Amino acid sequence: MKKLLASTALIASLSLPAMAQETLDPNATPGGNITVTYKDDVATLDPAIGYDWQNWSMIKSLFDGLMDYEPGTTTLRPGLAESYEVSEDGLTFTFALRPGVVFHNGREMTAEDVKYSLDRVTLPETASPGAGFFAAIAGYDAMASGEATTLEGVTVVDPLTVQITLSRPDATFLHVMALNFASVVPQEAVEEAAGDFGRMPVGTGAFKLADWTVGQSLLFEKNADYWRAGLPYLDTVTFEVGQEPIVALLRLQNGEVDVPGDGIPPAKFQEVMADPEQAARVVEGGQLQTGYITLNVTAAPFDQVEVRQAVNMAINKDRIVQLINGRAVPANQPLPPSMPGYTADYDGYAYDVEAAKALLAEAGLADGFETELYVMNTDPNPRIAQAIQQDLAAIGVTASIQSLAQANVIEAGGAGTAPMIWSGGMAWIADFPDPSNFFGPILGCAGAEEGGWNWSKFCNAEIDAAATAADSMIDPATPERLAMWSDVYMKVMEEAPWVPVFNEQRYTMKSARMGGDDALYVDPVSIPVNYDYVYVTE
């Protein structure tokens, strides 16, 4: 796989049997239920729409795409496609589908379902925050403009073969086919849901939705017809919502909860780590993450670059890192340090209150201004927002804090009604390990559309073109391509639509009875937990 990804100019073909034979964990005991808690209810389980920390792993367990990842890693493998071929020019991908795969409603999946799903995610009326990922597919622009209702580049060859033609090479295309947004869904189930597919999901995944009591709980049950033999191990997963993180931690300590979905409450972190019994159940993992403040460039006064640069200079990032017990390092650019394309010799905007005041005066705002800062209402995010509020006050900016449920913050960001957003709890974690992933959805023009994840609504055609040029190279790891991405992010920082604040390390906990490799609990793809592969030991 790595050789293929390094040079898609090679014709490649991978084949697996229809019922994929997994290397099962010899210690796994099939059966049982686990309980996972969250403070907020789930916004949606529609793979074309869902795009947050909370629902990502849920959706991944309900649905599959043509491509997938080895559990606990970012190593690509075939999913619903049992094999694929790539043309020598890197523009045409032919996927042979795995026969005998059935949806949760009992119908067998075909190539028509793949085409329908890709058409659906790119239709403007779907308002998918992931539509821009598919921009390289021929016909995408016509879809985005409303001139077409089907992707020209997606062709059904026969019931088990689909061909996807790109308008330009895309070094990340196979990764895109592994995203939740590329999940295959049945048209009849979407239509029967009458606009509520997010509450009535039907996929091909390891689990299916058995019950959803809004505001209380969701119950996932094992898909007995799952195409990966021997999986999942668990019979059911119960997601309890409305649980304060501190209460969830106490319940975990009492053996009533298996995974606290919101993680370890910052106020309890030192206490947990000081107790050897509890610390033994803590799972730590690296992640390609950046926490940031978005500045809505379409609304005054953030439509002035001097104001945005001033806000960058006003934020004391070291103090914010201290608020989360040092579980991060200050950030100075959108890319995290371990991501290819990171600019190591860039210093960013120094913390300088007087320089920030001078920039505001230059922008005609010597007396400051009033604004609103939106934040997710789960600790430590309100406390971080208060620290940001205090930093802004030091340069004469009065920011009222709007502390809301995650879904409400996401809605305001997508609609462009939030002047500023602290991204904590929703901060960007790479969908795949490539520098392009920190641009298109969250800084590119495609992501700035209604419902998109580009909450700064930043859209610079020149920078977009440079990003496209970087992605149009066949080899994703060439030094030339990584240098092009470095240039893209340096230009972004000149425009300052964000304040990069920190790059965070991931910590979570599991109950004493949970089994499976620790990497499954900080899975870089099935964020936060890969439910398909974890199990209970008692």
From TrEMBL:
Signal peptide as annotated in the record: 1-20
Alphabetical list of Pfam families matching this protein: SBP_bac_5 (PF00496)
Keyword Signal part of the UniProt annotation: yes
Database matches in InterPro entries: Peptide/Ni-bd, SBP_5, SBP_5_dom
Gene Ontology molecular-function annotations: peptide transmembrane transporter activity
Keywords: Signal, Transport
Subcellular localization(s) per the UniProt record: Periplasm
Major subcellular location class: periplasm
Boundaries of every Solute-binding protein family domain copy: 76-448
One of the GO BP terms on file: peptide transport
GO CC terms: ATP-binding cassette (ABC) transporter complex; outer membrane-bounded periplasmic space
Family: Belongs to the bacterial solute-binding protein 5 family.
Protein name in the entry: Peptide/nickel transport system substrate-binding protein
The organism's taxonomic lineage, starting at the top: Bacteria, Pseudomonadati, Pseudomonadota, Alphaproteobacteria, Rhodobacterales
